[in-house]
Write a structure and sequence with these properties.
Pfam families: Asparaginase_2. This is Isoaspartyl peptidase. InterPro entries: Ntn_hydrolases_N (IPR029055), Peptidase_T2 (IPR000246). With 326 residues, the protein is α+β, with helices and mostly antiparallel strands. It has a single domain, classed as Glutamine Phosphoribosylpyrophosphate, subunit 1, domain 1, CATH 3.60.20.30. Helices cover 34% and strands 25% of the residues. It is built from nine helices and 13 strands. Strands 1, 2, 3, 4, 5, 6, 7, 12 and 13 form a nine-stranded mixed beta sheet that branches. A four-stranded antiparallel beta sheet has the order 8-9-10-11. It starts with a strand and ends with a strand.
Amino acid sequence: MIQPVIAIHGGAGAMSRAAMSPEKEQEYLSALESILAAGQAVLARGGSALDAVTEAVRLLEDCPLFNAGHGAVFTSAGTHELDAAIMDGATLRSGAIANVHRVRNPVFAARKVMENSKHVFFVGEGAEVFAQQEGLELVDPSYFSTEARREQLLRVQRETPEAAVLDHDGQAMVARGQPAPADPLDADKKFGTVGAVAVDAQGNLAAATSTGGITNKQVGRVGDAPLIGAGTYASNKTCAVSTTGTGEMFIRMVAAYDVAAQMEYCGASLEAAADRVVNEKLPTIGGKGGLVAVDAQGNVALPFNTEGMYRGYARVGEKPVTAIYR
């Protein structure tokens, strides 16, 4: 009998302990723990891995501490463009959406694409029309905005107007010179996405990923999060993976699928495959970030090549484990 487990991430980057107040650290750890507990509860009552990752990512989207849904970062035009993907390891069914700006919970839209469409990927207006037809909640774009993220955009545009800064990096920029930093992550080195992976009691795997992209990004840019095989992948044969990092590099490496491919074709363990992708292959092209992964036996891997990653896992019947630093 497999012991069901869920793992989540909320972004990776260069994290300064000096900039982290005990209160801020506890705020992040508490958020991670409560979200893990919710996903764990789904698995504990016999729920599917798909339902568990959907619930965890929904809660991550609703939490303004993380760069997805409410609290998403701003584009260079001062707008929000949200992306998400989900994949069922039992069937290889998957769904994804990108560049939406009114869907409250993009992970719900991705799942509707997977379950109720003959397609895999919708973008922009077509994705929003599909979500509306499926009865999903649409909100005014202002719902996604927070004052901290707006200050982040303005600071980035003042200091490095041509740069696109990755998630909480910008929050740390806002924090410079303030006694209580808005975020513990270094402003130029934080990569923000949220994601979840799980295996249920039936041995089925699932993965889901969601993001607001990168601060000051060019309108229309899409990273790895919604791309099946790059930022999200799940197969019962091998593993479920959700990534966070420099999206363009994860796309070029097809990073999430690479973990599964090493397991399937080379017989690598989950830990060895995930470590090789994150700590050996991605750095060859400047790829920074990390991933969370689980395999069909319930093993968990959470490698990252930055100073830290918001992360955690929870096995059914055990207390959730959360961490930020190494």
